[in-house]
Amino acid sequence: MTHHVILGAGPAGVIAAETIRKLAPLDAITLIGDEPEPSYSRMAIPYLLAGNIQESGTYLRKTPSHFADLKINVLQALVKSVQAATKTIVLTNGESISFDTLLIATGSHPVSPPIPGIQCEGVHTCWTLADARAIMQLAKPGARVLQLGAGFIGCIIMEALAARGVKLSVVEMGDRMVPRMMGEVAGGMIRDWVAAKGVEVFTSTRVESITPGAPLQVKLSNGRTVQADLVISAAGVRPAIGYLEHSGITCLLGVLTDEHLQTNVPGIYAAGDCAEALDKVSGKMMVSAIQPNAAEQARVAAANMVAYARGLPAKTELKGVTQINVLDTLGLISSSFGDWQGVSGGEHAELTDQAAGRHLSLQFKDDVLVGCNSVGWTEHVGVMRGLVEGQVHLGDWKDQLKADPTLLMQAYLACAQGQGQWSGANDARVR
Known about the structure:
single chain; 431 residues; alpha/beta; FAD/NAD(P)-binding domain; Enolase-like, domain 1; 3 domains; five-stranded parallel β-sheet; 26 strands; 28% strand; disordered C terminus
């Protein structure tokens, strides 16, 4: 009997297991996760912190017998190594598991900055349900909380902390908030918005040390020392692929994959936050750590795993990934799509209304919109994504958008339909 093994029980792993079961009703499937809880979504943790849901609300599947009903064997274990040559997985408890096909979907893990005291009591990441429980014990109304990092994940955590009524300070090394998603103007507007909501923000600042105690003493590079009852480290994440060293599987930033999500080793695939796949807008290989991309990669990989096990050629291809980020920061909606920093030789259009808290930045390559930033322009989110993902040729509309970037919807309606890019999913008229 063919044995499919999936490493990682997050969204990508779960969707892959279910897809394999649908396509191969009799094959054996083992889903390996390293946490004791049922499979859950990390993106739901802020809603748990804010009190909007219970822990069960984070679970990816609500029926306790879901995987048993599908005859998917779920195993809680830590993977020590993968041996591609012998198609064997070695667990930290000494057991070995053989496979016919393998999916690497172990996601990411938080980066731990080299800061003295970062491991002391009262300092937590916000990545697991165990982290969330610890944070909820400390983040009581009025508690002094210092958050390290104001990137995309950091801003989502910040929203949840604000809902708990804490006194919040945020430290960001970059000169603006969400520096990997937003340009200088947009990131600065988000910073100003957050500060006006009562959050103390330190940009272009590093945490130099954390001294244990109650409260914690947090020394900043600007010369200040901040007292905190809780420090949250949200300094970013990296693909969790350390166990693949010496495996024979090629890894760069993530696990390198082709258009079928297959690695350099036949029968071994990768999906989700640990996979490095082609960005169809920039033409570069990248890790795109967002759940919609993880879900699509999982479906493609699973279909090709079944085909490989049957000795058939891979037919299912990933159309590519795109950088997509839509963020709600204390009520201010911002978005970033594609190559928002622009490309060499490209053109740029920008419109800013500081008083209204609205900003729009468009990046073009020839007559194609390759990236954009927006703050406060919620009505354009759908069409921006459609234009960037669809790589729609704008023709004369490019010059009209350069003169007036707010004409995005009109440009989309005029150009996308004629190029076969129209779909209800991007129908801005119903948004």
